[in-house]
Amino acid sequence: MKIDVRMRLLAAVFAWEAYEKGTDAHVQADPTKLELLSREFNKRKDTFIETKKEGILNKYGGAEHLDAPPKQLLLAQTVGHFAYFSVISLPVV
């Protein structure tokens, strides 16, 4: 129930912001149009963010640091502990 209320509030905020920018979209009058506008906006926003990210990585490098190591390596011990004992030879009497 809380998710549905949150989604409706986000749609209302999106409609208000779209109206301020000149798009005629209303939550209750035309919810289909608002949903399509919202999807298109989110797709363009994601594309812009990815393009910006790729541009920064191409310019400055560092893409190898974005790949996280496998979870097994993060949580498991990778170096074993070995105990070495020296053998002392005692003279036989």
Task: Report what the structure shows.
The protein is mainly α and 93 residues long. It has a domain at 2-65. 58% of the residues lie in helices and 0% in strands. The protein contains three helices and no strands. The protein is elongated. The model has no long low-confidence stretch (mean pLDDT 84).
- Supply the helix-strand structural class: mainly alpha
Quote the distance from N terminus to C terminus: 88 Å
Measured as a percent range, the helix fraction is 55-70%
Supply Rg.
30 Å
Task: Indicate the overall shape.
Answer: elongated
Helices and strands in order:
Blueprint: H1 2-20, H2 31-60, H3 71-75
What descriptive keywords fit this protein?
93 residues, 3 helices, mainly alpha
Nutshell version of this structure?
The protein is an all-alpha fold. The chain has helices at 2-20, 31-60, 71-75. The protein has a domain at 2-65.
